Amino acid sequence: MYLILYTKPDCHLCEGLEEKLRQITAFSVELELRDITTNENWFNLYQYEIPVLFCKNQDQEIPISRPSPRASVKQLEKLLENNPLLR
Fold first, then answer.
1. Which among 1, 10, 65, 85 is placed 20 to 30 Å from 18, CA to CA?
2. DSSP for residue 68
């Protein structure tokens, strides 16, 4: 699964989600980090929303509802595995 995480420096929610995504072992995850401070469009879109997570499926980027910061790695795996749009 190819995931895109929009983030910015010193964002603790972003760091927490990134860490959990990297701990997923139930399936293969390729993670691309996009720093919103490097792109004006990303910044304008996501400055109040980060972390923002997308799944890249072919040429399409599908938004994924932001999981609770309290969600465990296992809960995050289930969220991603059970989302029919990500298949």
1. 85
2. P
Domain assignments of the chain as residue spans, ordered by start: 2-86
Q: What letter does residue 76 receive in the DSSP assignment? A: H
pLDDT in tens, 49-78: 999 999 998 889 999 988 899 999 999 999
C-alpha triplet 1, 66, 6: angle, nearest 5°: 70
What does the pLDDT look like over 8-44, one tens digit per residue?
Answer: 999 999 999 999 999 999 999 999 999 999 999 999 9
Q: Which pTM was predicted?
A: 0.91
Element (H, E) at 4: strand 2-7
- Answer whether CATH 3.40.30.10 is correct for domain 2-86: yes
Distance CA(47)–CA(32), nearest Å, equals 18
Residue-level length of the chain: 87
